[in-house]
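User: Fold both of these, please.

Assistant: Here is the first one.
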Amino acid sequence: MSSPAPVGRPTPVTAATVRQRPSGMPIHRYGPYEAVDIPDRTWPDRRITKAPRWLSTDLRDGNQALIDPMSPARKRAMFDLLVRMGYKEIEVGFPSSGQTDFDFVRSIIEDGAIPEDVTISVLTQAREELIERTVESLRGAPRATVHLYNAAAPLFRRVVFRCGREEIKQIAVDGTRLVMEYADKILGDETVFGYQYSPEIFTDTELDFALEICEGVMDVWQPEDGREIILNLPATVERSTPSTHADRFEWMSRNLSRREHVCLSVHPHNDRGTAVAAAELAVMAGADRVEGCLFGQGERTGNVDLVTLGMNLFSQGVDPMIDFSQIDEIRRTAEYCNQMEVHPRHPYAGDLVYTAFSGSHQDAIKKGFEALEADAAAQGRGVDEIEWAVPYLPIDPKDVGRSYEAVIRVNSQSGKGGVAYVLKNEHKLDLPRRMQIEFSKIIQAKTDSEGGEVTPAAIWSVFQDEYLPVDGAAWGRIALRSAQTSTSSDGADALTVEAVVDGVETVLTGTGNGPISAFVDALTGIGVDARVLDYCEHTLSEGASAQAASYIECAIDGKVLWGIGVDPNTTRASIKAVVSAVNRATRG
């Protein structure tokens, strides 16, 4: 019994019809983050046109967050990697926190592992004995920075230190003075020496107080030409939207005195999942330097990811000044050092980030590669010399040392584009569109029945079994032995084919207006009614050993099927393609 026809039009989906319900979560325990009153903000109109200075804190902030902190060998591997990549400022440890960090700092100095253009940085709290120990670790370093910090936020003043603003400021001022005294005493003029101060928990510190502390520190350090100070404003815990974070940076950048002698540094963490955006917007708002870790290693949800930041610049045509061209080597080294795997979906570096499973995505990527090759040929240039433009791939995987092998992978969500790409990329077979559709249905049936991914090797195995006879195996009615062409007395093409038909050695003859037409005529002698609907061919390679691939669509006894033939001789390749189609129509 048929269903009654619907009456009227369906109700449209609107905001009124989408009824979300209260979560019941204890939202009363939390409040909004305080906004910054800066109505004439300028950062939204700025663009990042050059790389900021970078500092890697993998060996300090990253290392202290590991379940199993790095051994000396793993630390050295990380340091050497960062140097090879091109980082010029590297925070190498917290030498006053324990002998392990102290010894590592000494080892890279005494081994001569620090290039002359690389500045190492070490962290210290503001107590005198810790400052002395920290500076002592730097004896003999070519270039070094001491990084002093103390927490300034109201919660820390009230709960942790139980003191007021003035005492917190004095800790920073006294600590700065002690750093200067011990640097003069221990390092002298042997080391190019710099100083960095961080009001820890900047994101929760009142802006006017953060400014007051920084000014007090600068009054001691006295920055001037040739004597910069690094003021680092850390999102020790990420608490706001990236836009509000940028507002705070623009406010500080505007209000700091001696701004031309200040390197304003941003140190985002990823508690809200927006550290990359926070860093980029902070640079737009005036930050000169970014501190972070490779792949976002660090406390809790991690520091900002230096790889993503650098590659974001690269993808916009801005030189990151860091070499990411061997992304897999970088990832493997980081995984070894941190004993933590990089997620398969991690931007730019994960195993799956240049991979498409979706059929529509695969089809667009395949067409994008074809268009790129055509554009390069039209310009008389190499593909790697023209602007990259392929759908769903923001950068060329080869620019970071990847191949195209894993760009398209086939599963139940894939369509003709993915299957066709694999065959073209792996085997140089450029299937006609209707043949792509035909074969993709065969692969779809396989994935539907077996589930999971179909590897390129499995796709090729299915393709061979379906279209190409395997030597020594029974494959359909006809096995081609030889084919000879000649011209008949009336000018038509004559064809003589030696073949095994149904297990019997047979000679077939036919005539037509070409070898394919003549072979179709010859097939009538064994009761095969075939009609060619479409034909195309291309070469698979060049030179003396070049082979041709022929594709033929045939109507055979009421079935429409494709066949393929591969042979150094184009005539034999086309005859093989007809044999392929006939065998597919008649095989059991």
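And the second sequence with its predicted structure:
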Amino acid sequence: MLLSLPPELARMIAKSCPLETQASLVCACKRLYETCNPTLYMCDVQNYGSSSVFHAITRCTDDVVALGTLQAAARGGADFKLCRDFHGVRSFLQEPSQIAVHSPLCLAASRGRSRIVGFLLDRGVSPDGPGGVVTPPLFQAIANKRDLAAAWLASRGASLVRPDSPQNALRAAIVNSLPTLTAYLVRCTSLDMNEKTVPGPPSLVLALRSGQPWMVPHVISLGADVREPIWELCRTHHWADVVGLLNAGSVHLAKALETRGCLDLIIFVATQKVPSFYKDKQIAVIDRIITLQRALESESQGEKEERPKEFLDMLEGLLQRTLSIHRADLPIASVLLRHGVGIRPGVYLELLEVLDEMELGSHTRRRRIVCQHRKLLKSFDFLFSYGSSLPPEKRDASMGYFLRRVPTQLVELVEQLKSQSLSLTAHGLQKLEGGASRGGQSGSR
């Protein structure tokens, strides 16, 4: 009768009773609890599919209280293989077979209840859940980004490969940005970060596409292959992914490539023929690699394996190639110059040698020379503009020699082409000469 009253009223009545009566009441309640509580859980296990287990895992946020409930359910005979959810059921007279069945381990794993996962495993529950489960507990924890619970399951023997998919737990952990699980699987299991037989992108690309940039240096630190994935992305013109990897991986990626690898990558990227709409990305990749290499050199000054002289020599060779009268890849040349790469004297000498063959007064002769060297005027205009923009004290001897040797007539010719928005090619020359010829004929009339 007393228990049916509101708590405040029950306390008022208890206060008015003698201490002996209060003590007797407490002892009676304790004995009643000790008698009825096991019966309650036993009845729940036998008749209601261990609904207390479901509610402890899904609705009790305090691990201590939840574990206490699970221990009581265990004393009542719960085996923790399955449980039912009676929340929202209108009547407990409804047949339990009509109520949804759940795996307690799957419920705990998907919610990240690591202590409950440990409790269930200690009770003999299979780490892969009950037979017939569609998604094993480990992969439910991974899909819900429950890092510690997933690592706990993996360490307790959960299967690392889904039965319905060739994908393994390591790849799933990388995609879902789970650093603890990823590190455990690499260090303590047979799963290989660089396994090539598993379909899909390599680990480095998975880390980038996880949406968490910090996963890229994390997988690099665990031994993910860097060189092959980046080279493949460049070959297939996935430049946005390459830029993303370089930004996310930063110096960690440069360290993995080392100086020679960075240099190889710069040359590989610079020599790729890309459509014009990818050019900005190609330039961004080259710019970022050189920046990272410089940061790496600054960080590791004094280490013997660094070879900045070799690095600069190769970049100068690359710049010479991009400025040649046969290539004139001016966007790449610009980014190399921006990073302080020097222009070799041979670049100027090659250009002057061809210019000396041109007879600027002969339209036919100069058109023929430009046809033979299609990038001649572009290369000349770039070098002349760059050299002229520098103050005299910053020009080296070869640049000064080049500027002095350039015929004024050639400079004027290029300016005429540019002022009339004509291309610096033989076709542009032909249009310029045609316009001048028509102008002369109309003037004579």
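Residues 440-445 have pLDDT under 50 and may be disordered.
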